[in-house]
């Protein structure tokens, strides 16, 4: 018998954790951190219902913190590995987990300083040392090759296109009498018509399917993000202003670089200077450059012609803080890409402080802005915004491109599932707000006739 418990990403999009109990062993698929409002983040402090030391392995789908950020805590609490990942994920995780540890340590320091905590002293969820120990448990595996996790259980990673290294997890488990049960975890499903990475591998079919539903009830607008990006850059360049792009370090940044190069090459924008100013984005861009097996046909063709697909003309990668500060006196027109994507932290804050007051400039958001973030407040047109304790007037233009997203929408989630060779016996729809999960379940029911459930947090099912 196989037991599956939904320890996260049930009723919400973060904290992906699925506990599998089979063959007298325990395996955790994804070890995500809960993110967002405080009541969700508080769940990171609740201990797992099983001893971390009793887990025989962790299997991670991709590098995003809501799928991996709990690993250092697990290791701190007694889990000793192995943690399976794909090769690109193994390269992204050291800087990502270290960065997450710094944030945790900073938050704890801040809470102690202002006394905003019931816990004295406030402690970080994990430290840089825990992150290092977590990284030491990583065991990279190639795509598309079955790997024996233990006798009777085989793991295969399937490319998912969402970010570099993102995978779906296929498991083939021996049951009694020489039979097998197959389980398939979608991870986060990527998109089909986006540059750089290979598209998602279609769902091959399995006995059970656990599928994400972030955009289960939504559709991306079909507009070409390159057109919108080109327009904003031309307008701002004519005013002699700076286009400031807050971007997520992984994937969104690389996509923006790709589009900027393409636009400049097509003569759709002037060859103005482009600066990438984010240590994490710089590391991620290196991983995107070097993991050439992940590139789609178009990107491979560009490389074969000697073109660096991620380097617009006149491109500078900013290193030290002093170089970043020098950008404050940079005259326009120019483009500055910096993290974080929702302007909640990182070097983007310095640039916003220096550029928001000038109406020649544009702040261009290229991703979802969660409620309560500076990014959302700017998009909602607030006339001034607090940065480093100071109110900064907003005179720069605020624009947004909504068609850049790393997540499949409801149609793409349907296309992804439509080629299943064998229909799943049962589908568990997770990783979505409740309405989105219900909508995708209904869609799969109507379209494919599949039996779909939307599990509750901590619900256990017997398979
Ligand atoms: Zn993700």
Quick recap:
The protein has 463 residues and is of the alpha/beta class.
**What's the number of helices?**
14
Task: Strand order, main sheet: write it out.
Answer: 6-5-4-3-2-1-22
Bound molecules: zinc ion
Fraction of helical residues: 25-40%
The unreliable regions are none
Strand content: 15-25%
Beta strands, count: 22
The description of the largest β-sheet is: 7 strands, mixed
The whole-number mean of residue pLDDT values reads 94
Coarse morphology: globular
3D structure, described in words:
Strand 3 (25-29), helix 1 and strand 4 (57-59) form a beta-alpha-beta unit. The chain starts with a strand and ends with a strand. The protein has 463 residues and is of the alpha/beta class. The protein is built from 14 helices and 22 strands. A 7-stranded mixed beta sheet has the order 6-5-4-3-2-1-22. The structure holds zinc ion. Zinc ion binds next to loops.
Main features:
463 residues; alpha/beta; seven-stranded mixed sheet; globular; binds zinc ion
Outline the fold blueprint.
Elements: E1 3-6, E2 18-22, E3 25-29, H1 38-41, E4 57-59, H2 65-68, H3 71-76, E5 83-86, H4 87-114, H5 128-135, E6 138-141, E7 147-150, E8 153-159, E9 167-174, E10 180-185, E11 208-212, H6 225-238, E12 242-246, H7 252-265, E13 274-277, H8 279-290, H9 297-304, E14 315-317, H10 321-326, E15 334-338, H11 348-355, E16 362-365, H12 374-379, E17 384-387, E18 390-393, E19 397-400, H13 410-417, E20 426-430, H14 434-448, E21 452-453, E22 460-462
Parallel strand pairs: 3-4, 4-5, 5-6, 10-11, 11-20, 12-15, 12-16, 13-14, 13-15, 16-19, 20-21
Antiparallel strand pairs: 1-2, 1-22, 2-3, 7-8, 8-9, 9-10, 17-18
Helix pairs in contact: 4-5, 4-8
The structure holds zinc ion.
Residues 62, 64, 162, 188 line the site of zinc ion.
